[in-house]
Amino acid sequence: MGVYQIEWKSSALKELKRIDKAVVPRIVDTVQSLASNPRPSGVRKIKGASRLFRVRVANYRIVYEVVDEKLLIHIVRVRHRKDVYLDK
């Protein structure tokens, strides 16, 4: 398995800017670690979606898509756990 490339959706970057500044470095570190291991322990597959996963960082969830054929990870959403699954 090779190293995956990370791509952020623009909406996920906007969400990251609204998050508590004390948690942002932990979120960024977690996202960077996904490049070498896109399915670490503690990651959950999102039901009803073939390639979507979520990983927990404090009270926040990072929702991302893994495209194994292209060694690519799309960061789709970064939100508080109470808001992450709401469609907005």
UniProtKB/TrEMBL annotation:
Alphabetized UniProt keyword annotations: Toxin-antitoxin system
Keyword Signal: no
Coiled coil: none
Record carries keyword Zinc: no
Highest rank taxon of the organism: Bacteria
Pfam families linked: ParE_toxin (PF05016)
Family that this chain belongs to: Belongs to the RelE toxin family.
Protein name: Type II toxin-antitoxin system mRNA interferase toxin, RelE/StbE family
